[in-house]
Design brief:
This protein is 57% helix and 15% strand. The protein has 16 helices and 13 strands. It has a five-stranded antiparallel sheet with strand order 2-1-5-4-3, with helices on both faces. Strand 3 and strand 4 form a beta hairpin.
């Protein structure tokens, strides 16, 4: 063991011994400042005891005993302060020691000759008062210092009659001054050494804490980088809701998911958040959030949020709250994840499933009804052929041929309906510029809807310059079926049977209204007339596909159809279709005049 190690161990042993002597087994002092000041209090108590003993021996050597009462008093107060300090009552021990010492010094200074210089001890006492109290209790040191200074001035300028001064022993002036000076200086040096050690300890602690803070800051920075990388990779936007202040912090990624830049969309409260939620989802979001905050249920919800562009997109919002000791929520941290593409895919799948179910059902109905509607006229034709082959009557043969023609025409109409249905499914929409007046007039004049249709009085209320952009193939099939329907169900006994066609323009679409005074449709049947193979009248000779095809084609063109009918009075079909002249990017195959314009 070298000299430095020996000195280090000796110093450590002395500190350990002094700590056990002054503070005993107290290990609960966690503050360095409190510990050091408690140690200083103990040192000062020991010093005061030693000074009292020294002065008592010194006075005994010179034959003076009149100050023993003061020595004994201060000695006892120092012992009491030492014991109080050791028991942990640090503040009371400090005040007791300082007060007792101050009073004894004052009494000594008042009874000793002016030249005795015992008043020098006021100086270390004031320094001790500042050293023993921390910054928050600085006023206590100031109070003791002001009292010490006031008592010194009182003693220096005034004589106190109740405390007569003692005569100084011959030849002791110099030694008394030297002793008072040494004691005063020693106490001051002890206090200064304590302050230096306390300062060094605090500096060491600060350096250690600073180093730890730097390490912690670096770890936090690295952790934050890992966290941000993880969040960035997970496409999540973090938010932190201070429920007490009702302020929500949004991470840059949260803002970006909604289309905002980092410097946009300042932090806001929960009510502003609800303004971003789609109106259909607000109540559901509020209810789920309240259940989480009150009952602690899991908070995760799929909802639509308004982005910067004004479009609503799907997000998954989830979070976890923190509650205080009273059970009140104080904070909630969560994240949003964009799930718009997944939700759109799910909607497409649901729509496709619905269409598939509808197609399967229609296919079943189609196979059953089509086989019946095809076999029925064929069976009838075969029967008529058999009758005609066995008959020798020309009139009967001609009648059979006429009936066969009727059955074949009916079969041809059915095949035409099937072809129209197939075209609607297979062919893409092709938009062209159409003059509705000439378009409707061409259908009426150049298509055969039967003898009944030729007896109808046709009314057209369409301006000659009424032009739209739509799909001419589907529009033609829609009108042909509606005209055929009006002809088929016209009231034959009504000599003034009529059908009207009206065109109206709306803001971004157009309406076609086909109205007649035929037999009409019963109220209880109107909800089913657009079903496949449904015949609303027992007198119907059609396939039951006409209105179904009309409805399918209107839907294909993103329009809608409505029927208003009174049984025995007539029917009115109102079709509204978009005019693609107002579309952002109309898919127009050709803007040249179609053939019917030249009529």
């Amino acid at each position: 063991m070298n000299r430095y190690e020996f000195l280090f161990m000796l110093n450590h042993d002395l500190e350990d011994f002094s700590q056990r002597l002054i503070l005993g087994d107290q290990h609960h002092i966690t503050s360095t400042g409190i510990y050091k000041r408690a140690m200083l209090t103990g040192y000062l108590c020991i010093m005061v005891v030693g000074i009292c003993l020294f002065y008592a021996l010194y006075d005994a050597y010179h034959g003076f005993y009149h100050d023993y009462l003061l020595y004994f008093t201060l000695f006892n107060f120092a012992i009491i302060a030492f014991l109080l300090n050791k028991s942990g009552r640090f503040e009371f021990a400090k005040i007791l020691l300082l007060t007792a010492t101050l009073l004894v010094i004052f009494l000594f200074s008042a009874t000793e000759p002016v030249g005795n210089s015992i008043y020098l001890n006021f100086f270390p006492l004031s320094v001790a008062a500042f050293a023993l109290f921390d910054y928050k209790a600085l006023y206590k040191g100031v109070i003791f210092t002001m009292i010490s200074f006031s008592l010194f001035l009182l003693l220096y300028f005034y004589e106190i009659p109740l405390l007569p001064r003692q005569a100084i022993a011959a030849g002791t002036e110099a030694s008394d001054f030297l002793i008072h000076f040494i004691i005063s200086l020693s106490a001051t040096v002890l206090i200064i050494i304590f302050l230096i050690k306390l300062n060094r300890t605090i500096e060491a602690n600060l350096l250690s804490k600073d180093k730890n803070l730097q390490i912690t800051a670096e770890e936090l920075k690295a952790s934050q980088q890992r966290f941000e990388m993880a969040i960035s990779g997970s496409n999540s936007g973090i938010y932190d809701w201070d429920i007490v202040r009702n302020a929500i912090y949004h991470a840059p990624r949260w803002k970006k998911l909604l289309g905002y830049e980092e410097d946009e969309l300042e932090d806001f409260d929960i009510n502003v958040f609800y303004e971003l939620v789609h109106p259909e989802d607000v109540e559901r979001a509020k209810s789920m959030l309240q259940n989480h905050l009150i009952n602690g249920t899991k908070y995760t919800i799929e909802l639509k949020l308004r982005t910067k562009s004004g479009e609503y997109q799907w997000f998954n919002d989830s979070g976890q709250a923190v509650w205080n000791d009273q059970g009140a929520p104080i904070r909630m941290v969560g994240s949003i994840v964009k799930i718009h593409e997944r939700k759109m895919a799910e909607e497409r799948i649901k729509k496709q499933n619905r269409m598939l179910e509808k197609t399967n059902l229609e296919l079943d109905n189609f196979v059953y009804s089509a086989s019946h509607d095809i076999r029925s006229p064929l069976t009838s034709v075969l029967g008529l052929i058999n009758i005609a082959s066995k008959s020798g009557d020309k009139k009967e043969i001609d009648h059979c041929l006429e009936l066969m023609k009727s059955r074949i025409n009916r079969l041809d109409d059915f095949i035409e309906d099937i072809l129209d249905f197939s075209r609607n499914l297979r062919l893409d929409k092709k938009y062209r510029e159409i003059n509705l007046y000439y378009f409707v007039d061409d259908i009426i004049k150049n298509h055969d809807f039967g003898d009944t249709f030729r007896k109808l009085r046709i009314k057209m209320s369409i301006p000659a310059d009424f032009e739209v952009i739509s799909d001419p193939l589907r529009l033609k099939i829609i009108l042909k079926n509606l005209f055929s329907n009006s002809s088929r169900f016209s009231n034959a006994r009504n000599e003034t049977a009529w059908m009207s066609v009206t065109a109206l323009r709306t803001e971004r679409s157009f309406q076609l209204i086909v109205k007649d005074n035929g037999e009409g449709i019963r109220d209880e049947l109107q909800d089913r007339i657009f079903e496949m193979f449904y015949r609303a009248s027992e007198n119907s000779k059609g396939s039951g596909l006409g209105l179904y095809i009309v409805n399918e084609m209107v839907n294909k063109l993103n329009g809608n159809i409505k029927v208003i009918s009174t049984y025995g009075v007539g029917s009115q079909f109102i079709i509204e279709l978009p005019d693609h002249r107002f579309a952002k990017k109309p898919m127009i195959c050709s803007l040249i005049k179609t053939p019917w314009h030249s009529r």
